Amino acid sequence: MLNREQYRASRSDGGISLVVAGAGTGKTTVLVEKVKSLIKYGGVPPEKILLLTFSKKAAEELRERIGRDVPGAGLQIHAGTFHSFCYSVIREFRETFAREYGFTGPPKVADESSRHDFYRDYVCGNLARFKGMPADIAADILMNYGKLGRKSRDRLESLDMGRISDDVAQLYREHKIVKCLIDFDDMLDMIPRMIEKDRRFGEILTNRFSHVLVDEFQDTSQSNFNLIRLLIGSSGGNFFAVGDDWQSIYGFRNARVGYMLNFRRFFSNATIHVLRVNYRSKKEIVALSSGFIRKNRHRSVKRIISHRGKGGLARIIAVRDRDEEIGRIRRLLGDYAGYGSVAVLARNNRQVALLERETGSANGAHAGAVYMTMHGSKGLEFDTVIVAGVSDLVIPDRSTDIEEERRLMYVALSRARDRLFVIVHLNDDGSPARFGAELGLRI
Questions:
Q1: Max CA-CA distance within the chain?
Q2: How far is CA 33 from the centre of its chain?
Q3: CB environment 331-341: b (16+ within 10 A), e (fewer)
Q4: What is the Cα–Cα distance from 222 to 233, expressed in whole angstroms?
């Protein structure tokens, strides 16, 4: 049964629409219902629907849920990731792409490890230029130089890493053509270029789909957005996007939350729906997480309401050192073992490994608990969530935009259904870590 906001968003209307969803408000349900409405009530053939996602798992789930109510439709719609869609087009029109880009045959996909190997081989062949820097580190810097912050680039200026990065990138482009390889970035760039350059190819592709739908729109990159605009055509077409800008946490993958925040700047006649009813979390958890994310200036304005009402726990726990933190986590795991699912979340993989090892060393208290990074928890939910390691040395990460770090913290907070515990480290002067203070911890 859909609520009023969900129903309005999922009707079979055409045109351009954006659904701004809150955590736990049923955005996936709305996307599924939209596709079903287009087919059952809008008369849209399933094969004319293109549904783009950012993970294979999400695409499979959407296809399965659609097919459950509309037999056969799950297999007939084109549902997949941006990359899988682009690669399928490149394979279908392989002669066109081979002719345009100089390939001698159908291109194969080069994964990130093969790219890293190429860069590392370059470093090893030119060690003098890197003044003793380990080859793997130098290769990583060259591969990701454009994503580094200004301070990091300034520190590398003496090594001329910017120019070297450009030189190696050109060598890698030439290497891919010779070896008939394309990487994930190539896939997203090639299709828009071909649509704009080859009129016949563009007409075939844009006429193939009457409706384009995108999940997790807050994670859209410039390449993703260029592809979307070209696929829906200059007339505007039919485009439906769902997402939550409060959960945009993939800036390091070039996601740009501005496409969602400034949607009407790009689509002036768009209809915007807002999902406000959270079906996941108790009121206390919704209040804490919503209050925290409001510290961000660049965000949509929405008041999230808990459908489940009061009765939850949302507590901030102050600790002075890691030993005290480990002790608190062990007690919490012991107290809530057997009361549903439990997750321990932390900012990075190193923290997660340490927490799992150290909290599991006494009485098996971690049995049944899931340990993962905040990034890894996105899209999941647990009855009890312990957000650990909130320290100024760890989160916010100094190399990342502060507002994205808040959004990452919000993702972690909003995973909890019934109980949320946030463990905040105190600084040497006794003050709480920044995010602890923003959550309301006072010492």
A1: 67
A2: 22
A3: ebbeebbeeeb
A4: 17
Residue 210: which of 190, 238, 187 has the closest Cα? 238
Query: What would the pLDDT profile of 72-110 be if each residue is shown by its tens digit?
Result: 887 899 999 999 999 999 999 988 888 888 888 788 888
What DSSP state is assigned to residue 70?
A: S
The token pair at 89 is 């087009």
* 246-289: pLDDT as tens digits: 999 998 888 999 999 999 999 999 999 999 999 999 999 999 99
Residue 31, both tokens:
């996307």
Residue-by-residue DSSP string for 424-443: EEBPTTSPBPHHHHHTT---
pLDDT at 327 over 80: yes
- Angle, helices 161-179 vs 135-143, to 10°: value is 80
Q: Give me 408's structure tokens.
A: 């990452």
| Through-space distance between the first and last CA atoms of the chain, rounded to whole angstroms | 45
Report how far apart, in Å, the C-alpha atoms of 337 and of each of 26, 65, 281, 344, 357 are. Answer: 28, 32, 19, 13, 18
Give the separation between CA 214 and CA 202, rounded to whole angstroms. Answer: 20
For residue 56, give both structure tokens: 């294979």
DSSP-based three-state secondary structure for 280: coil
| DSSP string for residues in 343-384 | EEEESSHHHHHHHHHHHTTSTTTTTTEEEEETTTTTT--EEE
Nearest Cα to 113, choosing from 148, 83, 141, 140?
A: 140
pTM exceeds 0.70: yes
Residue 272 β-bridge partners: 18
